[in-house]
Each structure stands twice: as structure tokens, then as C-alpha cells.
Amino acid sequence: QQCRHYTAGEGSSASKVVVAGLLTVSGGIGGTVLYSSSLEDYWGCLGLCLCVCVFSLEECNECHEHKEATAVHPAPTEPMKERPVEEVAARLAQQEQEEQDISASSLEDSLASSAKATLQAIGAQEAALQAIMQHTDKLKEAMEAEVLPEEKSNQWKDLEAALADRTTALNDARAALSKANESLDSLRSVIDESKGLKISSVRPLVLAAEENLHNMVVDLDKMVMKVKLRLQSITLKVTSGKLSTDDLNALIAHAHRRIDQLNRELAEQKVREKIHIDAALEQQKLEDQKALDSAVNTALQHVKEEARLDQERKLAELREVMEAEMRTQLRRQAAAHTDHVQDVLKVQEHELKAEAEQVLSSKMLEQETRYRQLTQEQLDNFTLDMNTAYARLKGVEEAIDSHVVAEDEARKAHQLWLSVEALSYSLKTAEADVPTVPLENAAQAVRDSCRDNDFALALASALPEKSLQRGVYSEASLRARFNSLRSLARRVALIDESRNSLYQYFLSYLQAALLFEKRQEAPPSQLSSEDLDPFKLLSYASYCLEHGDLELAAKLVNQLRGEARRVVEDWLIEARLTLETRQVVNLLSAYANAVGLGTTQAP
Amino acid sequence: MADEHARKWDRCLADTAVKTVTGLGVGIVVSFIAFKRRAWPLSFGSGLGLGMGYSNCQHDLRSPYLIHGRMVKDQ
């Protein structure tokens, strides 16, 4: 019998991928089974196929997923229109993927487990078969080999061991079979569940699983049947060969014993035979019936399954086609929708942009104006501050300058005052009959100290030249001189332009000798004509001098006429000089005092 | 100026004295020579001298009051 590949369907790529996966799986699990035993081609092939199938199933799922994934992610450089369709398809595919994953995984798991169990069962069956064969060989060997009785007994022991092995192998096979049946039932239930989920992409998987299940079931049954046949056929083997005499004797003895035993057993058996045959017949009938039923059932089930699978396949195909159709329609709709949405979005974008621009421009304008305002304010404030500072600075400077000026003025005034004081002090240096020091230096000092003061300068320059060069006489000296002058003036009192002969001189001398006047007489406030008498004048002048009034004395003396006048002319000039100088100095002093007072600041 | 006056007087007196004595002397001389030792030239001379001196003295004392005129020619 050739290898039977489990194919889920003809033509669809998914089914082919499923096949490949299953093949891989089977190959992986059955590899060791293949190696561990010297198999007939059928078993090896079967195991290999099963493993490959299981692996291929897993791989199929992966492939399927991968296929779905690759179908989902298109190239990014496609135009915008294609994108939404693809994205929708991707989303749908993703959803399907997820559900499919879940069911596929469960399916996969159950399939894998069932495949494993089936494989195990088949392996167990095979092992049982192997054990049976071994046992048979051993038995044959034991029966035909010419060996020593010990070895014979060993051989019988081995045979017993082989028998034990066979029984254990058969038990194992049975257990494995039951397990396989369980797993197959579970797989069936999972398939039903998956079918219940109604996911399109899982359908091929489901179909594949169902088909695998069906195939596994079929194979399992076949295996079981084979084992049964084998078991039954074992008893038909006949052994032949040459034996030694001892062996023959032993054998004969053994045979006799055996024959006895067998006869006994036969007798018993005969008795039982009938019962047993009846029972067996009955049982056989029953079994036949059962077998028939089971065979019919299984055949029926297989056929049903196949039909259902066909139907399912056709349904799946149709659904696929419809799905594709629907997908294209949906894609078109999605494209249209995306176009519309794009247009609307563009319009909205424009609107919003315009609005935002407007808002931005208004805000910017506002900020600009505010900024300008602030800067202007700052500038104004700064200018104001600068102006005030400048004004204050100017004020301070002016104050300082005026202070400086005032101080300068004060200093000058002080200097002037000092120089004037020096001048007035130098006036006092006149001793008796000696004029003062020449006032030139002091006057120069005064002139220096009042260079820009016109008044003082005028005053300083009003000092008489004589006083500057020669100095002036003091009042005391003038007074003293006057006394001597007085007598002389008295003596020449009568002489004037008209009377100036010697005789008149003699007469005036005589008059002076004989006339007596008051030594000093207070002058009246107003001079009358009779007061112009020289003697009177002289006495007035003397009085004035005595009382320190040089000016009045000079005035009075000035009233003298004639020779007396000429005689006192000198003195008069001197007196005038002194008066003048004193007046100037007094004026200067007063002025300096005034200026000093004016400039001096009280602390 | 007062000194001037005094000086004047000094001068004057001195001058008068000198003149007088000089006159006297001249008179004596004249009297001896011309007038046979008569007395009258002595007094005449001394008188002359005295008078000259007096006149001088007066003139000197008067001098401030003297006005000096000048002939201005019409041209």
C-alpha cells in the first residue's frame, strides 16, 4: 500500500499549506519511531506521514497567518486612495486573524495531541505486533531448535517472557488505542466548536482538521484490524524441522505428557466445546453482527464524513468567492468614503487654517501694539528721568558755581577789606611832623584787590597823587602846625592886595599885638559877614581843630583872605590832602565793609 | 608858605641892613673923598641904603600881588 497523504482539498493554496504543515509535524514526531524500529514500509510510511501531517498542520497555520499578514501590509508608496482599502482589509484580516489564531491554536493543539495519541496508538499497535512476532519467532525457535534441556528451559523461559511482552504490548496497544480514541473525540469536539464560531478563514483549517481526523480514524481502525488479523494468523503458523533422540525422547515425553494433558483438556474441552462452540457460535454471530454493524457504521460514517466534507468544501469555495466579491465591493465603498472624507477634511483644514491665521494675526497685532506702548512708556519715563537728572545736575552745577562765585566774591571782598584796612592803618603811621609812608603800595594793593570793581577802582584812583607819592600828615601834626601858623596869620591879618606896604605890615603887627580874641570859639552853624574876621576865623578853626573837626577848620581857614590866606595856604593844602585821603579811605573802608558784610555768610 | 614869609622877612632885614651899611659905607667914602668928612653923606648913604632895602623888602613882600602884564601885538 502506498503512502497516503492527507490533503484538505484540491486546488486551494491554503489547503496545500496545511498539508505541508501536517507533513512536517508528522515527520518530526515520527522520526524517532521510524528509527527505533525495523519497520515494514507501511508502518514507517504511516508514521512518517502522520508526523509530517501534524507538523504541516502547525506550519500551515503559521503560513496561513503569514500569508494573511503579507496580504495585509501593502507597499507604503501606494497612493492615498489604495491605503484606506488596504487598511480596512488589514483591520478585517487582523480581526479574522485573531479569532482564527484562537481557534486555530486550539484546533492545532487538539489536532497535535490527537495526532500524537493516534501515532502513539499506532506505534503501540505496531509494538504489539512486533511483540507478537517476536513471540512467534521465539516459539518457533523453541519448538524447532535442537538444544539442551537447560537451554530448552531457558528458551521456554524466554518464550514466557516473550509471551509476557506480547501481553503487555497488547495491553499497551489497547490503552494507546483508547487514548487515541479519546483524543480523536476531543479533536472532533474542538472542530465542532470551531465550526460553531463561523469564521471564514478558519474553515479550511477546520476542513483540514476534519479530514485529518477522518483519516486518522480510518488508519487507526485499519491498524487495529491488522493487529487482530495478525493475532489470529499467528496460531495458523506451522513449524517443521529435524530433532535429536534425546530431544525426541524429551519431546515425546513432553509430548506424551502434553498429550495426556491435552487429552484431559480435550475431554474437558469436548465437554466445554459444545458449550463453548454454541457460545462461540453465538458470540461469533454476535461478533460478526457487531463487526458487520461496526464496519457498516464506520463505512457509513466515512462515507457520510466524506460527503459532508465535500459539501463543506464546496460551501467554503462558494463562500470564498462571495467573500472576495464582498471585499471588492467594500473596498470600493471604502475608497469612495475615504475620498469624501478627504475632501471634507481638506475643506475643514482650509477653514480652520484661515481662522487660526486670523486669530494669530489679531493676537500678534495686539501684542505688537502693547509692546510698542510699553517701549514708548519706558522711553518716556527714561527721558523724563534723564531730564530731571540733567536739570538737577544743572541746578547743582549752578549752585556750585554760584557758591564758587560767591566765595570768590567773598574772598575778593575780604581781600579788599584787608587792603583797605592796611591802607587805613598806613594812614596812622604818620608821626609828629612826619608824613605817613607813601600810600602808593597800599593803594596799589587796594587797586589789585579790586580789579573788577569799578567803584572801588574809581575810589582807589581818586586818591590824590601827593598822598601816594609823599604821604599825608596826620591831624595832630596839622593841629600843631596850625598853632604856629595862627600867630603868623594874626600878624599878617591886615595885608591883602590893596594893603601890602611895609607900613601895613607894621600896622598889622601892631594889631596882632594889641588885639586879643578868644583862643577857641565855637563856630556858629552859619557864618555871617562879621565872622569873616581873620581873628575870629582863626579862633573858630582852632576850636574845630581842638575838637578834631579838621574839615570845618579847613573850611574856616579857607575863608581867610589876603596875606593870611597866603600864609596858611600850605597848611590848607596839606589839610585838604589829608582830608581827601581820609575821605577816600573812609569810603573805601565803608565800601569794603559793606561788601564784606554782604558776602559774608552767617554760620 | 609860612616859612616863605619868615624867609622873606629874614632876607628883607638882611638886605636892608646890608644896604644901609653899604650906603653908610659909601657915604663915608664919599664924605671922605668928596665932601670933606661932612656928616651928611653918611646919613644920606645910610638913608639911601635903608630906603633901598625898605623898598626891596616891600617889593619882595608885595611880589605875590603884583600883576605882570604883557603886550599883545595885533597881528
UniProtKB/TrEMBL annotation, chain A:
Q: Which UniProt keywords apply?
A: Coiled coil, Membrane, Mitochondrion, Mitochondrion inner membrane, Transmembrane, Transmembrane helix
Listed Pfam families: Mitofilin
Q: Where in the cell is it found?
A: Mitochondrion inner membrane
Q: Which superkingdom?
A: Eukaryota
**What processes does the entry annotate via GO biological process terms?**
cristae formation
- Return the InterPro entries for the record: MIC60 (IPR019133)
- State the coiled-coil residue ranges: 245-272
Q: List the membrane topology term(s).
A: Single-pass membrane protein
Q: Which GO terms describe its cellular component?
A: MICOS complex
Q: What does this protein do?
A: Component of the MICOS complex, a large protein complex of the mitochondrial inner membrane that plays crucial roles in the maintenance of crista junctions, inner membrane architecture, and formation of contact sites to the outer membrane.
Quaternary state and interactors: Component of the mitochondrial contact site and cristae organizing system (MICOS) complex.
Q: Which protein family is named in the record?
A: Belongs to the MICOS complex subunit Mic60 family.
Name recorded for this polypeptide: MICOS complex subunit MIC60
Identify the species of origin. Neolamprologus brichardi
Lineage, opening ranks: Eukaryota, Metazoa, Chordata, Craniata, Vertebrata
